[in-house]
Design goal:
about 220 residues, alpha/beta, Rossmann fold, 11 helices, globular
Length: about 220
């Protein structure tokens, strides 16, 4: 077995489940703005950690139900009208008039299980709200992760350096021995700065093949 890596770390959104970013398309159309603008209003600036309410909730500093009220100043900056249901729309996993539920990516779930069977440690590293974390653990119960690293539990979020350090501590694996799958470029840049190797997930099946190649596993 190739031992260039001792551990594989998986993101949740966009890796284990389909990305929620498609939910911003109808929100943008309704608000008569771009997807980029409505996403920044709702989720905060990309690639940095700030005091935006979404970021605060991901660090476990405020509850989920306080995010919506904190979005108004950001909407005002862009002269965008909010309808009061933006967080519910993005966060909910039920079909609404605007969006459809996310889907679990079963081949990636199975790949994580197989990677562990092949002798590698595995971890989940995710930016997640306190209120949603039990759902994630239930959905991924069959994947026996060696470490669960949730931003709201750790008080730090990707791409902050501390959460990568915490992942190494929990896995007891140094950064140069970690291979990380994520769909978001700033998170991957931060991982590389921590010495990790990376796979950017755009198509999960392509990412699985790349993972097999890097671990020298049969596809």
């Amino acid at each position: 077995m190739d031992r260039s890596f001792d551990a594989v770390v998986f993101d949740y959104g966009g890796v284990m489940i389909t990305s929620i970013t498609n939910k911003f398309v109808p929100l943008a159309e309704r608000a008569e703005t771009s997807v980029e603008v409505i996403r920044e209003i709702v989720m905060g600036p990309l690639g940095v950690s700030t005091n935006h309410p979404w970021h605060c909730a991901e660090r476990g500093e405020i509850p989920l139900d306080r995010i919506q009220e904190g979005l108004e100043p950001y909407a005002a900056e862009h002269s965008v009208k909010l309808f009061g249901d933006e967080i519910e729309t993005v966060y909910s996993n039920t079909k609404t008039g605007l969006t459809s539920p996310y889907q679990i990516i079963e081949p990636m779930i199975q790949k994580a299980i197989d990677v562990k069977k092949d002798g590698f440690s595995i971890a989940l590293l995710t930016n997640i709200f306190t209120e949603f974390y039990p759902t994630v653990k239930e959905e991924l119960d069959e994947v026996k992760f060696d470490a669960w690293v949730a931003s709201s539990e750790e008080g730090t979020r990707k791409p902050e350096a501390k959460i990568y350090e915490r992942t190494e501590e929990l896995l007891q694996v140094s950064g140069e021995k970690i291979l990380f799958l994520d769909d978001f470029t700033p998170n991957l840049i931060a991982a590389k700065e921590a010495g990790w190797s990376i796979i950017q997930v755009s198509d999960p099946l392509d990412a699985i093949k790349e993972l097999d190649d890097k671990l020298l596993l049969p596809s």
